[in-house]
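Journal club side-thread
Mid-discussion, someone asked how the predicted structure for our own chain would compare to the paper's figures. Pasting it here so we can look after the session.
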Amino acid sequence: MGKGCIAATKYFLFLFNLIFFIFGATIMGFGLWILLDNQSLIAVLQDSSMGLKVVSYILIGVGSFSMLLGFLGCLGAIYEIRCLLGLYFTCLLLILLAQVATAILIYFQRDWLRKEASEIVSKVVVNYPGQNKTTEQAWDYLQRTMQCCGWNGHEDWEANLMIKNTSLDFYPCSCHNASLPPHTVADSGFCQTTSNDWPVYNTGCLGNVESWLFTNYGIILGICLGVAVIELLGMILSMGLCKSVHQEDYTKVPRF
């Protein structure tokens, strides 16, 4: 490989690793968001699910490792250090295999994940309002912003202990349909109605969440494929540069 090709490979690999470093920072930020968020479905699920907390720690670890890997890749590319390039290739291969295994696991465990989420949300709905204000605020926020009520439908709220044990007609304020009177209600807690028909959204949040995922399916898939292509490109460039460095070192060996 000519010196021009080696230089081009080296700087392309450096640019790639800079992108990979930013990608690792993004993953770590996403993990921190899952761990610290208190205004979305994530907050509702992670408070009652140890598995989601473990996932957040894994994402933080993977993001940190990716940042370190990007840094080592930059050093290996600029200074043409063969051992770093070889280590970089091996780590990228392991990450790619781990991502494929994770995708397969999520696909085959999707029914279990849906059931787990349903059970967690059901507990929140039944015990609302309880002691965990952060989780309940996140659930109220989700119902308001996604214009939904309950997990499968507003009937889920009929199992709520407060609604079952009172003679008054209460309904969750965060479920209130803005197109129906009254037009000014509280953002949380229970509201009273004089009718047996609650002025709430009929759609469950499960349907809205799945609809959001389906709508953004192309974006999510594109990001995943883009990451895989970048990783494969990094592996190819690192091996190409490593081979070139080896050939240069071989030609410099004195002949007798």
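Post-session note: The mean pLDDT is 76.
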